[in-house]
Write a structure and sequence with these properties.
This protein is of the alpha/beta class and 327 residues long. The protein folds into 2 domains: 142 residues, VC0802-like (2-Layer Sandwich); 179 residues, Vaccinia Virus protein VP39 (Rossmann fold). It has 10 helices and 15 strands. The chain binds S-adenosylmethionine.
């Protein structure tokens, strides 16, 4: 199956890394991947639906049904038979400025020989990408970006300004490569932002924090959202049996606003990463946001670093979305 994913533009590498990790988590094999102008085209074996429903940093995912110049796309449309069903075609320029309405009109006329236009709730939803080449796709999934905005920490029962935006929380969870229904641990869970998103994409959350108020607050936010195992614990002394989780996704304190009760972050990370290594099964991943290169190096002494994406938040804060594997 050939698919294309229209990635979001929040970062040059993180959206693509998230998509590839989500596919890997759901055991979708990728035979070839091409990336250009925020579009990721993939030749994939296995069902992609489960993986693409997890994405946070993307807009639309399509199964590619035709490619080439505009004439070959139009002849595909003329040869299709919709048997009177409803359809919609939306066009978008990729790296070029196009008159989308004109292109949609011509293609709509071709499809309209056997189908009926419905712009609101069509049974066949098509997307045309216009660039050096044209790609026509049937929409498989649209990422609900409005829902991701609506679940920001400020809108939750227990709210503190320490939580990642839900779209970045999803990206971090996907980077941890925990499969559907797998257990994901956040040992610095705070208000629970990451683990609420974990629930929304079908993972089973385990949340720990040293601060009891966080655990109680997270429990309040969890009510009605789903089940999770929560507890008060130090991230360097995890009360869990080895290999009892499929992966870790976490956003620890950076030694700034969030409290470490006076412990230098180098000491905290040293203890935490040692505990992560003892807990994770071989081949499992930890996706961790770190504040600087020195902390990435420190973490790499315990787990093997496989990728890092630096996201500038403001002048004095860069979040490094890092992935480590227990090799
Ligand atoms: C940046 S916040 C986590 C934000 C979280 N992702 C959220 O959505 O709210 C870091 C959390 O680490 C917790 N923490 C600090 N030191 C800790 C330790 N030694 N063990 C466990 N948790 C700790 C703090 O209480 C705080 O809640």
């Amino acid at each position: 199956m050939r698919i294309f994913i229209e990635l979001s533009g929040e970062h040059p590498t993180l959206p693509r890394a998230e998509a590839l990790a989500a596919l890997a988590a759901e055991r979708v094999e990728i035979r070839a991947a091409v990336f250009d102008s925020q579009v990721l085209r993939l030749d994939a074996t296995g069902p992609v639906e489960r993986a693409v429903h997890r994405l946070g940093l993307a807009h639309v995912v399509c199964e590619e049904v035709a490619s080439g110049d505009f004439d070959s796309i139009r002849s595909f449309a003329r040869d299709s038979d919709f048997h009177g069903r409803t359809f919609r075609v939306r066009a978008r320029g990729v790296g070029v400025d196009v008159d989308a309405t004109a292109v949609e009109g011509q293609l709509g006329a071709d499809f309209g020989r056997t189908g009926v236009v419905d712009l609101e709730q069509p049974s066949m939803d098509y997307r045309l990408l216009v660039g050096e080449e044209f790609f026509l796709g049937r929409v498989v999934h649209r990422i609900d970006r409005a829902r991701l905005e609506a679940t920001k920490v400020a809108h939750r029962p227990f709210s503190l300004p320490i939580s990642l935006h839900p779209k970045f929380a999803r990206a971090l969870l996907n980077l941890s490569r925990v499969p559907m229904a797998g257990f994901v641990l956040d040992p610095f869970c705070g208000t629970g932002g990451l683990l609420l998103e974990a629930l929304s994409i079908g993972l089973r959350p385990i949340g720990l924090d040293r601060d009891r108020r966080m655990v109680l607050g997270f429990r309040a936010s969890l009510r009605g959202a789903g089940d999770g195992a929560l507890g008060v614990a130090d991230a360097g002394r995890l009360p869990l049996r080895g290999a009892s989780v499929h992966g870790i996704a976490t956003d620890p304190p950076y030694g700034r606003a969030a409290s470490t009760r006076g412990e230098p972050i180098a000491s905290l990370y040293e203890r935490a990463f040692r505990a992560f290594r003892d807990l994770l099964p071989p081949g499992a991943h930890a996706a961790v946001v770190l504040p600087n290169e020195a902390m990435i190096d420190l973490a790499s002494e315990h787990l093997e670093r496989i990728e890092a994406h630096a996201l500038r938040v403001h002048r004095s804060l860069v979040r490094h979305f890092c992935v480590f594997v227990n090799s």
